[in-house]
Amino acid sequence: MKANLKEFTKGIFKENPVFVIVLGLCPTLGVSSQVSNAIGMSAGVLFVLLFSNIFISALRKVIPASIHIPAYIVIIASLVTIIEMVMHAFVPAVYSALGVYLPLIVVNCIILGRAEAFASRNTVLDSILDALGMSIGFALGITLIALIRELFGSGTITLFPVGTFSGVINIPWFINNPIRVLALAPGALLLMGFLKAFFDWNTLRKKDR
Amino acid sequence: MSYIAILLTFIFINNFILVQFLGLCPFIGVSKNSENAIGMGVSVTFVTTVASVVTWAVYYFLLVPFNLQYLQTLTFILVIASLVQLLEMVIQKVSPALYKALGIYLPLITTNCAVLGIAIINISNNYNVMEAFTAGLAAGLGFTLAIVLMSNIRERLDLQPVRRAYRGMPIAFISAGLMALAFMAFDKSLITNLHLV
Q1: Smallest Cβ distance to A189: which of B113, B165, B173?
Q2: Close Cβ partners of A37 (under 8 Å, ≥ 6 residues apart)
Q3: Are B69 and A84 a contacting pair, CB within 8 Å?
Q4: ipTM score of the complex?
Q5: Nearest Cα residue to A115 out of A148, A171, A71
Q6: Average pLDDT over residues A25-47
Q7: What is the average per-residue pLDDT within B46-73?
Q8: pLDDT per residue as tens digits for the range B76-94
Q9: Are B157 and B175 in contact (CB under 8 A)?
Q10: Alpha helices, H only, chain B
Q11: Across the interface, do B28 and A103 touch by the CB < 8 Å criterion?
C-alpha cells in the first residue's frame, strides 16, 4: 500500500509535470490568464488522463507493440472528443474560453508521456494513482500560474458563477494597480521562467546539503 | 481577409509560439543551436502547410457530407500522424539529402501542438482551401522565425555568466518572454493601417 501511495504523491511534488518535468506547456501558458480557465483545463486533463491510463493499462497485454502509439492516440482522442462534447453541453462558457486548447489535450505530452512511460507497464490500480497524482500536480501548477497572473495582472480572481455570485472577485488595491504585462502573453513566459528558476534553485539547494 | 493579411496575422500578430503558445515543447527543446532550429522550423513549415490542406479536404469532403463534424479531433490527429509518416517515406525516397537533414525532426512533429492547432483554427475561422494553405504556411514561417531567433539568443547566452538556478530552461523562458514583449508591437492595427481588410 505504501508503494502505491508513492505513485500518487510523486506527481504532485517530486515529478510535478509543470515545474519539474516541464510537459504540457501549451495549455499551461495558453489558458492561465484566468483561474476559472485553469480549473476547467485541469478538469479536462484529469478526465482524459485518468481514463486513458485505465484503458491503456487494462489493454497493455492486448495492444501489439508495433502499433502501440497509434492505438494510444485513438484512445486519447476519443476521450478528448467526449470531454469536448460534455463541456460544450454543460459548461459552454468554459468550452469557448478554452477554445483551441481543449482539443489540443490530444497532443498534450503529459497524457501520451504517462501512457508510454507508466500505464503501458503497470497495473490498473497503480495507473489510476499515477493519473490522479499527475493530474493534481498539473492542476496545482496551472492554477498557481493563473492565480499569480490574474491577481497581479488584472486584480481579480475569476471563479464560476453560482446563484447571485457573478464568479468574479475583485481584490482591493490590486484592481487599481494591475501589472498589465502579467495578464498578456509575454507575462506568461516571464512568470514561467521565474517560477522554474525558483523550483530549480530549491532542488539545487537541497542537493548542496 | 486577404492573403497578405493572413500571412501577417500568423507570422507576427498571432505568432504561434510567442502569442498563442502552440508548439512550445520543440521551441524550448530544439532551440539550443541554430542549425537544429532551422531544420525543425523547415520541417514544421512543411508539415503545417500540407496538413492544413489535407485536413481541410478531409473535413469538407468526408466529415461534413456525413455530418460527422464531432469526430474532427480524432480524425485530424490520425490524418496528421499518417501524413507525417507518409512525408517521411516520400522524402526518404525522393531526396535522401533532405531526409538526412530533416529526418530526425519529422517523428517529433506528430505531437506538435502547432500542427493540430492550425488544422483546427482553419476550420473554426471558416477558411477556404487557399486561405487554409496560406495560414498553414504562415503559421510554419512564424514558428521558424521564433525558433531561429531563439536559437541565436541561446547560443549567445551559453557564453554569458548566468546564475546557476537560471541556467537552461528558466533563462530560455525569460528570453522568450522578452521576445514576446517585442512582438506585442505587432497588433491588429497593423492590418487596418495597411488597408488589408
Answers
A1: B173
A2: A31, A94, A97, A98, A146, A158
A3: no
A4: 0.86
A5: A71
A6: 90
A7: 93
A8: 999 998 888 888 888 888 8
A9: yes
A10: 3-8, 24-29, 34-58, 72-94, 96-102, 106-109, 113-124, 129-157, 169-183, 188-193
A11: no
CB A111 within 8 A of CB A48: yes
A185: nearest CB among B19, B74, B121: B19
Structural domain boundaries of chain A?
A: 2-152
Residue A126 neighbours by CB under 8 Å, 6+ apart: A4, A7, A57, A118
Best mutation target among B10, B20, B63, B73 (most A Cβ atoms within 10 Å) is B73
pLDDT score of A139 more than 90: yes
Query: pLDDT exceeding 70 applies to what percent of chain B?
Result: 98
Name A143's Cβ contacts closer than 8 Å, sequence gap at least 6. Answer: A35, A38, A39, A42
| Contact flag A189-B177 (C-beta cutoff 8 Å) | yes
Report the pLDDT value the prediction gives residue B134, as an integer from 0 to 100: 95
> Using one digit for the tens of pLDDT, what is the confidence trace for A169-206?
888 888 888 888 888 889 999 999 999 999 889 888 88
Q: CA quadruple A19, A25, A29, A34: dihedral positive or negative?
A: negative
Q: In terms of Cα–Cα distance, which of A198, A50, A185, A45 is closest to A115?
A: A50
**A50-81 pLDDT, tens digit each:** 999 999 999 988 988 888 888 999 999 999 99
Q: Which of B76, B173, B175, B178 to mutate to test the interface with A (most CBs of A within 10 A)?
A: B173
| pLDDT per residue as tens digits for the range B132-182 | 999 999 999 999 999 999 999 999 988 888 888 888 889 999 999 999 999
Quick check: A23 and B25 CB within 8 A?
Answer: yes
Nearest to A30 by CA among A130, A136, A107: A107
